Structure formats: C-alpha cells, structure tokens
Amino acid sequence: MQPMLSTFPLRKLPFVALKHVIQVMDIDEILKIAITSKYMESIVKVCYIQIRQTMAIFSREYSYIGLDFPAVTLFCCAKAFNHPSAPKLTKEDLKPWLSETATTIENTRQFFTRIHKLFQCGPYRLMINSPTENIKEILEIPEFRNFTVLYLVGGHFKKEQLDE
C-alpha cells in the first residue's frame, strides 16, 4: 500500500507562513511556483531570495541560464543536457515565461531579465561557446552588457570581432 500524497493550496496560507514555506523550498521548486501566477510571482519577489551568481550561456545547441548557490540550470532552448549535480528546468517547464515566436537569444534575454527581477541576484557571467554565434548581437543586448566576466570559448576569435 502506497502512502497517500496530500496536496494543500499554498494560496490558502497566511502571508507570513506562505513566505516561510517558499523560503525553505529548493530553487527549482520556487521557480515552478512563481511561474504559476502573477500573485505567486509577487510573493516570491517579496521573499528576497538571494542567488549569489548567475551565468548566461550561449552555444550552438544550447542556451541556458545557470544559477549558482543554490544551483539550478534553466534551459531556454529545445535541447537540454544532463548536468550531474544541478537540478534543471526545461523549456517545457518554463513555457509560460517564454515566447513561441521569439528567437533563442530573445527568449534567453527575457528570461534572464525576469530572473533578475524575481531574485536578489549577485554578479553574473556571460559565456559564448561558439565563434559562429553572433557575438556582436549578444553583446549589444543591454541586459548582457554589465557582466563581471566574459568567456569566449570554442574557436579563434579575430580582433575585429572583439573590437566591434
């Protein structure tokens, strides 16, 4: 006989109790809660959950946002890879916050902005894993200009590409 799982609507909790419940959840569960409604998103905002470091990664096959401390990987593209230790949310999980018609770069930008508004985020790093990615297009996006570290990986970059 399997134990019966019970569910309880979080919205029925008093504000202080709801805030405490959200603060003790894992970061991937907090994101799933925030995606459910504007109300829950606003509750998550007032919980002031800190993310020590964020990284936006662009690659040929992948585009994702990595959160460190606590660790979670958020995929903004159709493809996902298996990370051995960090929980992950796929494009399907994040669907309410992503646009069906937008490019991967645009979806990543929108999601990155939303994460920074939702959580108290520390400095972020930007990684571009392929010389075929449009480096200039990514670096011209205002949300991606204030990085603390820029990683350019996966090929030879010409001085002209980096000076643009």
Automatic annotation (TrEMBL):
Alphabetical list of PROSITE patterns matching this protein: FBOX (PS50181)
InterPro entries listed in its UniProt record: F-box_dom
Domain F-box: 7-51
The protein, known as: F-box domain-containing protein
